[in-house]
Amino acid sequence: MTSYSLKTIANLIDAQIFSGNEQFEITAIASDEGNESEIQYIRDEEFIKKHKNFLAKTCLIPSNLADKALNFENILVSEDVELSFSLLTSLFKNEINDSNFVSCDYKFVNNPTFGSGSCISSKASFGKNVSIGCNCVIGDNVSIGDNTIIESNAVIYNSCIIGKNNFISSGVIIGSSGFGFIFRDNSWKNIHHLGNVIIGDNVSIGANTCIDKATLGSTVIESNVIIDNLVHIAHNVKIGSGTAIAAKVGIAGSTIIGKKCLIGGMVGIFGHLSIADNVVISPKSNVYRDIKKQGRYSSMFPLFEHSIWKKISILISKIDKIYSLLKK
User: Fold this and answer.
1) Is residue 197 part of a domain?
2) Do 234 and 264 share a domain, yes or no?
3) Half-sphere CA count of 150, side-chain side, radius 13 A
4) Domain stops at, among 42, 59, 92
5) CATH number at residue 58
6) Are residues 175 and 269 in the same domain?
């Protein structure tokens, strides 16, 4: 396990030691389930209010909030905490290590079957009756449960956990990096994603679907979920058991979807939302706010002749003025 002293980290991420032991060793960045040897990233005062019980002994916090971090033994402060966090993630990023790949005749426990051309890490583990298609990539510390079938050309990145009796179609990517960047000095700086994806049992995932790993912690797909082709599930999303998602749905980061939801094709769901259990969302709808109670929701327009649609779109752009006049 790679570790860095507090002093080394401060130098590498352009931060200052506000208080603490400069020789204290940091092993990772803390998620909600962090531990004493990890460093907790604190963005703002609102984050402190939401999270009362930090397990980590060390934090990275904006300089103007240093006095709010008194529960930590070691405090790093930064004038640009987002940039410092971006640099911090680059220290702990975990990429697939080609040197761990073994030939398909390597003897794993439970004897999974592999198609030709697959690259499998010797650090992966497999349950009984697992089948992996041709040209798949299975990264370090991946765990795949009994009776799971993975079709050709799928990629499972490091540390992802796949349960039992799952069907993963061709071209699926599980555990890819999420879309995390900040703009500094006229260029985009990458915030590396360090978490994983956890998938329950009896899950079906359609072709060319992409499920991003969490920034920290886990993106979670619970048991008995079915996902169609060409779906994108972003970092830190959680999808409840029994939910069905049709093709071309896009779910932005950190959204929580309840149990037994039905999400129609081409639905777009904004980030950091919460959707209740037993919600039905009609195809092509845009979800931009929380849905707090069960029911059916829609937000689409029917098809018009183009000449009529041009008139309607002008009215829509002026609807606030029309409403004000009607109110008077």
Assistant:
1) yes
2) yes
3) 32
4) 92
5) 3.40.1390.10
6) yes
Q: How far apart are the two ends of the chain, measured CA to CA in Å? A: 68
Q: Do both 55 and 83 map to the same domain?
A: yes
192 is catalytic: no
Q: What is the 3-state secondary structure (H, E, C) of the chain?
A: CCCEEHHHHHHHCCCEEEECCCCCEECEECCCCCCCCEEEECCCHHHHHHCCCCCCCEEEEEHHHHHHCCCCCEEEEECCHHHHHHHHHHHHCCCCCHHHEECCCCCCCCCCEECCCCEEECCCEECCCCEECCCCEECCCCEECCCCEECCCCEECCCCEECCCCEECCCCEEEECCCCEEEECCEEEECCCCCEEEECCCCEECCCCEEECCCCCEEEECCCCEECCCCEECCCCEECCCCEECCCCEECCCCEECCCCEECCCCEECCCCEECCCEEECCCCEECCCECCCEEECCCCCCCCHHHHHHHHHHHHCHHHHHHHHHC
Q: Give the domain extent around 152.
A: 106-297
Overall number of domains in the chain: 2
Same domain flag for 85 and 153: no
**pLDDT tens digits for the chain (328 residues)?**
678 999 999 999 999 999 999 999 999 998 876 788 999 998 888 887 777 678 888 999 999 988 887 788 999 999 999 999 999 999 888 777 777 888 887 889 999 999 999 999 999 999 999 999 999 999 999 999 999 999 999 999 999 999 999 999 999 999 999 999 999 989 999 999 999 999 999 999 999 999 999 999 999 999 999 999 999 999 999 999 999 999 999 999 999 999 999 999 999 999 999 999 999 999 999 999 999 999 999 987 778 899 998 988 888 888 888 888 888 8
Note whether 203 and 118 are same-domain residues.
yes
User: CA-based angle 239:242:243, to the nearest 5?
Assistant: 50
Catalytic residue among 51, 232, 235, 272: 235
**Are 281 and 234 found together in one domain?**
yes
Question: What is the CB-side half-sphere exposure of residue 299 using CA atoms within 13 A?
Answer: 14
